[in-house]
Amino acid sequence: MTDKWKKTALFVIDMQKDFILPDGPLLVDGGAAIIPNVIKAVEVARERGMLVVWVVREHDKLGRDVELFRRHLYSEKGGPTVKGHEGAELVEGLEIHEGDYKLVKTRFSAFFATHLHSTLLGAGIDSLVIVVFDAVALNYPSVSVIVDATAAKTPEVHDANIFDMENIGVATPTLEEWCNANC
User: Fold this and answer.
1) Residues facing 55 on adjacent strands
2) Are 59 and 74 in contact (CB under 8 A)?
3) What does residue 25 show for φ and ψ, rounded to 5 degrees?
4) pLDDT digits (tens, 9 = 90+) for 4-25
C-alpha cells in the first residue's frame, strides 16, 4: 500500500433502500444500476487500505431534522430514511466493516453541520473519491468522482453534474480507469 492510498478516502453516499429500491420514496433513477460498481469500488478501496466513509441519511420520524422542502414527506408514521427503519438501511451487497467510518448527515452536503472535515484532517486524509463541490471548496487537493459509480435523479442531471464538476477541476474517471490508476 502506498502512502497515497493511506491519505485517500472513498465515500459511499446515500446507498440506502429509500434512494435505490424501485418503490423507494426518494428513488434515484440509475441508482440500482450502479450497485455493482459501488461494490467493486469499495473492494478496491479496502484492498488499497483506503478509509471507506459511509455517508447516510438517518432522520427523525417526524422530519424535524429534514430540509423544509421535504418535511411534507414525514408524519407520525415516519418518512424516508428514518433512523431504525428499513428504508434507512444500506442496499443488499453493501455493508460497513470494522475500520470503515459511518457519517450521518441530515442535509445534501456531508460537510454541513457534521464533523466530517475535522475527522478527515485528523486521519491525515487529503484526497477524496466520490465527493464533490464541498470538498473542492474546502481545498482538498485531489477530488475524484467515479462517473459510473454515481447517479442522480435523472441521467440528464447526472451528466450536468459531471460537466459542472469537471469545470471546477474534479477528476472524473470510470471505475475501470480508477481501479487501474497507480496500482
Assistant:
1) 13, 103
2) yes
3) -70, -15
4) 899 999 999 999 999 999 999 9
